[in-house]
Amino acid sequence: MQCEVDMDLLCWGSGELGQTGHGRPEVIPPEEALLKEFATSGLGSVKLLACGSSHSVVVTVDNKIFAWGNGTSGQLGNGERAVKNQPVEVKLPQELNVRGSHLDGNFANVVGIACGSRHSFIWTETGQVYSFGNNFYAQLGYDFQRADFKENQLAPCLFQNLPSSLKISQVACGERHTLFALEDGSVAACGVHSVLSPSPQGHVSW
What we know:
- By secondary structure, the protein is mainly beta.
- It has a single domain (2-165), classed as Regulator of chromosome condensation 1/beta-lactamase-inhibitor protein II (Methylamine Dehydrogenase, Chain H).
- It has helices at 36-40, 193-196; strands at residues 2-3, 9-10, 46-51, 55-60, 65-69, 84-90, 110-115, 119-124, 129-134, 152-158, 168-173, 177-182, 187-192, 204-205.
- The strands form four sheets. Strands 3-4-5-6 form a four-stranded antiparallel beta sheet, with no helix packed on it. The chain has a four-stranded antiparallel beta sheet with strand order 7-8-9-10, with no helix packed on it. Strands 11-12-13-14 form a four-stranded antiparallel beta sheet.
- Strand 8 and strand 9 form a beta hairpin.
């Protein structure tokens, strides 16, 4: 998947699970990659994009979020566990400031997205980070021992497992783990322990 200079969206490859957004299950060649319906339907020009193993997420210049493909673990963030062959809109919770009150104003400015095999992350200019999808290995960063733990988070949930003094500047998702680059130059991680450390202790690490 790529975004052209004029912000047209191109997506090609296997469409078996709807991940190309063309609404067709067959392989889409590069010469047929233009997602015409995305532009003509008024969904907006794309500024950010990311691909998981079988799902895709984009953000438009007016900060609308769309996803499509395999959503059986909630990785599309639209509140369902289903395959979507065409773009569906993803709604973020109303953004909160560090004191927990709602920010006045319009849409949060989304500055980054990342997709793992079955999970997704979105983060904003103000440092708010949201995650959704599969959390079996704690790759979303939620404590799986909590009573309200969800193995599959179907809608974006505010990430709150780091001290408020640490602002996330970049996120990268692997198959079953996630890495966070922080503004102070440090790095945090969550997910499968064998990926994050040579130590065999348990399945999940921070």
